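dumping the sequnces here before i forget
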Amino acid sequence: MSDLLKFDLLSASIALKNKEFSSLELTNAYFEAIEQTSALGAYLEILKDRSMDMAKASDKNIKNGTARPLEGLPIGVKDMFCTKDVKTTASSKILENFYPTYESTVTQNLWDDGAVMLGKLSCDEFAMGSSNETAAKGNVVNPWLKNRKMSPGGSSGGSASAVAARSALAATGTDTGGSIRQPAAFCGITGLKPTYGRCSRWGIVAFSSSLDQAGPLTRTVSDAALMLNSMAGHDKKDSTSANLEMPDLMNYLDKGIRGKKIGIPKEYTQDGISDDIVSFYEKSINWLKDSGAEIVPVSLPHTKYALPVYYIIAPAEASSNLARYDGVRYGKRNEAASLDEMYETTRGNGFGDEVKRRIMIGTYVLSSGYYDAYYLKAQKVRRLIKEDFDNVFEEVDYILTPSTPTTSFELGKKQDPLTMYLNDIFTVPASLAGLPGISLPVGLDKSGLPIGIQLIANSFDEPGLISTARVLERSAEFNFIADGAAK
Amino acid sequence: MNESINLKPGQINGETGIWEMVIGLEIHAQISSKSKLFSGAAASFGAEANSNVSLVDAAMPGMLPVINEFCVEQAVKTGLALNAKINNVSIFDRKNYFYADLPQGYQISQFTKPIVGEGEIIIDLDDGLQTIIGIERLHLEQDAGKSLHDQHPSKSYIDLNRTGVALMEIVSKPDIRSPQEAGAYVKKIRSILRYVGACDGNMEEGSLRADCNVSVRKSGEEFGTRCEIKNLNSVRFIIQAIQSEAERQVEILEEGGNINQETRLFDTSTGETRSMRSKEDAHDYRYFPDPDLLPLEFSDSWVQKIRETLPELPDLLKKRLVNDFGITPYDASILVEEKDYVDFYQKAANGKDGKLTANWMITELFGALKKENISLSNSPISPEKLGQLIALISDGTISGKIAKDVFAEMMKSKKSPSNIVKEKGLEQVSDDTEILKLIDKVISENEDKVKDYLGGKDKLFGFFVGQVMKLSQGKANPGIVNKLLKEKL
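..and the predicted 3d for all of it:
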């Protein structure tokens, strides 16, 4: 194993500044790792020349003493982010040859802070999925128990797989209902979904506009803090982006949680949750208690409606957001005799089954005669779910839950869509409420697969989320490396 | 049919009796904004195809709309000018449908919570009467692009320049009862829009278009089923289309048929409407709040600030013109139709005979400009020069008849009226001895007629006046001619 791969984002950034090695050396090590782990299928685009140029420029900055916060650190980008002159497909056939002429705000922020772009990472098609199996270019494999070909989770499956396999120092993800946190949990890494509005959505291929939020997938909580520092910020080009300064999260790594109250919602311990996860959930509660937090049982009574509400609102917005993929101006077009036929064949061939399913559900719930019963009611219940959290945050500072009801599952064992949707049962409520959440690995189950625990904070309390997650991280001492990771 | 019935405008005399029309209008007014409603692309007219298209307009992946505050201000201004309720919180919705000139696959509009609510305006009719028409709402929305179907034998061309341009849709209540009222309503809305500067009102360039909802009923009955005539771009077509559509509906109903609720197009070549799509084929637009945009919110004090920027609006201005210049309400209503007109008039009438100025402006100047097809802003006669002409008439320097010649010369040469009068020696002759000389000449040349006149043929007096005026080449002061002739005869 290349020694350089041992460094995480934060330690690598310090080592680069201390000139222990160069960004070019580090970036090269990652390209070797990408090659070594190519069977995992995490990368859709590998940008060797470009990243070498970026690394050289970073080395110059480091030499000149003008290093920026992420100077010279090689990272991967989920294919939902539009990247200038770099193919951006959202893992869909319908965008198979799309080269944006613009760079998303979040990725631009990362490059402006000195990060080096390794390439584009696979995901579920249009971020719709929880196993990365809906990607047009095929499955991504979880580096854990690599011979069994486990799912990395989704939709940020490529990002999670690459970070766990050490073929990216860190990666960007997007989370709509759990798409950062669930794959992070499946791959034994840290995934942070910020408060809705914290990161600009400008230039991110839209799935569900009221839920989509970019965030980091990293090896550690500190890395997540370092990366989110750069990703976040107000953007005039996104009307829903919060005009709110985010404090430097690196100042909150070691604040501790003494005197803080941690809510344990009774609705999150249900049938169907694996014993190993329950056991690590209990351990996590005790770790926080031992670190000086007060544990408070709480109730979020509308939790059981979160999943159905999500599967009305997200497809409704998606059905409208995806209408622009019509083969007229960009992307794949299937020629036909009439305009309607052209739409039908282009969209029929361009979209995969899961995307079509959600477009149909979304179109249905918005249709006249069904709107009130589905979309409008879902919006009302969404408000109730948000109020549940508001009430609980009157009593407690953070909420602790499992990230997922099960650990990763084998790829290709076709699950019906409903079972698949249950993967997001613990992550969806915070998404609907727009709250920040983080999943971090706390242990392995009996078969050796990572278990993730989720912390949820109140809106815009990313600093407290980081402090609390750090306490849990230190207690859990999760030092395992995936067997499929680069060596 | 009973030919003797005196029909009011908007009534149709059918076999079964008199029908009346019920009309509601949706006016789409393009906001006079340099950039589009949600993007920075230019909104100018006549640019090369697809040259004013931003990434947002082309609906590139990941692009997001950002509201243009100027357009919001214009909508509020217009709402205030329509005496309407301003909604401090309004919401943008997506109206979803597929079409090649709608890149997003949805139009951003306002459905349940528009920026402006109910209001009303007064319209002026040709007979000098006024009536009130209710406004249902005004909302902001994006325009779609343009499909060009005649450029290629099998393909359509798409121009996205218009895509995303800001429109205000102003919806009337079904208060309109005749094509003439509809025409007056559109003119009034256009005039208000121009006063507040929210829209240039240019119907030829498509800045103002109307959809007309038309139904017919017997007086006192419930509203009938309506048809919507789409996209009319002149007052004349609006009047024609409504008349023809109402007649079509009456014919169907009198034959025992039913009106199908549908969308129709007006064929300008035949002067008739034809079906575009029936209610069954109507889109299900699946409106829902646009999650890319926050609700539009503003404070009362912000609205108040906008209110303070409003110019004097036509209705109040009209009252003021009647009071200050002593003109008739009818003349005043013509003058306030356009801000240009009233500005011109106020300059011309400043310190002059207001009534005379109004007559000259409306009859002579508008007539001459119309004949030459020149707009008032390009008039060869400036307001100041028209005022000078009025002054020359009022102080007796020239007669009204001579003034017409001077006016014609002014149109041609752009010279000032006093110069023309001087150059051509057109001053009115009011000197008694001069005029007496002319009278003597006329009398001596027409002795037989003098005898007849004295013998009782009073009507011949006009003949003598005419002869004297003719002899003076029209310059003699007609009042003095009259007076002296009477004495002399």
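Residues 27 and 210 of chain B are 4 Å apart (CA to CA).
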